[in-house]
Write a structure and sequence with these properties.
The chain is mainly α. The protein has 11 helices and 4 strands; from the N terminus they run H-H-E-H-E-E-E-H-H-H-H-H-H-H-H. A 4-stranded mixed β-sheet has the order 1-2-4-3, sandwiched between helices. Helix 6 packs antiparallel against helix 7, helix 7 runs parallel beside helix 11 and helix 8 packs antiparallel against helix 11. The protein is globular and about 60 Å long. The two termini are 15 Å apart. About 6% of the residues have low confidence.
């Protein structure tokens, strides 16, 4: 496999994390002016962030209702992931399956050695062999690009601001001389919005990069393009309950959910049409190379 490092993605990840770090340094400084008892929730959130870093994969699987499966249960799925992992020069990740009709897949884990690739039973029923390889290779490309960890950390930082928006008044104490707590709440809202926009922009770009990575792993960009169209065509025909439950995992899915609050206000993924067009262009390039 002729793997080409996407320095554009690495640069965007580094720049996004730098901006988020600078944003939250200012954020914490502002909050310290308004909340007398802010140290305790800050320490608590810091401890939670460390726990999330080490257990993000298990938390993601639990939130999706996915479970780790053995090679005896899903032998074909394990063989495919093992073969594609070898082609991508990656350790074989943990394999998980979620029993839901929503045809989707995602990768999680803090590094290459602790990665998990999860698929839904709806996906396994929807795709042919080549299409399934394309989707699995896409998730492995996320692991190889190390963007899963960056998205996990960046997403958590935005939840701190949301936490202050919802519960910050509990830690305001009796500080009557400073500005009203509502000012700190408004600052938190602003920080959350900026964080959300930064994460969304990074998420959209990383999908293009993972699509290209999948094409490098399998050598068949057309198979992934076909899989994306198949999945996209089925997303609106699955039960609405599944869509509502899984909308918050949009940034980690191969195709975003189009329902729920998050799905309505912004997309974490480029349009399927744009992704397919790029894959078709890459297919033509590979044929003429």
């Amino acid at each position: 496999m002729d793997w080409q490092t996407d320095w554009g993605l690495r640069g965007r990840m580094a720049f996004t994390m730098f901006l988020l770090f600078a944003l939250y340094v200012v954020f914490v400084g502002v909050l310290s002016l308004y909340f007398q008892n802010f140290l305790f929730p800050l320490v608590m959130l810091g401890g939670f962030s460390i726990a999330q870093y080490f257990f993000s994969d298990k938390l993601a699987l639990r939130s999706m209702g996915a479970r780790e499966v053995s090679a005896d249960e899903y032998p074909d799925l394990h063989r495919r992931i093992e073969r594609l992992s070898q082609q991508a020069d990656l350790p074989k990740p943990t394999v998980a399956v979620a029993d839901t009709q929503v045809p989707n897949a995602f990768a999680t884990g803090r590094n290459k050695k602790n990665a998990t690739v999860a698929v839904t039973t709806g996906l396994l029923r929807s795709l042919d062999e080549d299409e399934l390889d394309g989707v699995l290779a896409h998730e492995l490309a996320h692991v190889k690009n190390r963007d899963v960890m960056v998205m996990t950390i960046a997403s958590f930082l935005s939840t701190i601001a949301f936490f202050i928006v919802r519960w910050g008044w509990l830690f305001s104490g009796d500080n009557r001389q400073g500005a009203p707590v509502i000012v700190a709440i408004l600052v938190s809202i602003l920080v959350w919005i900026v964080s959300f926009l930064l994460i969304r922009a990074l998420s959209r770009y990383r999908e293009y990069t993972a699509d290209r990575g999948a094409a490098m792993i399998t050598g068949e960009p057309g198979a992934l393009a076909s899989a994306l169209m198949t999945i996209d065509g089925r997303m609106d025909r699955v039960p609405k309950e599944d869509l509502r439950q899984e909308a918050e995992m949009n940034a980690f899915f191969i195709i975003p959910i189009r329902a729920g609050f998050v799905g309505k206000i912004a997309s974490t993924h480029p349009s399927t049409e744009n992704r397919v067009e790029r894959l078709r262009e890459l297919e033509r390039e590979m044929e003429t190379a």
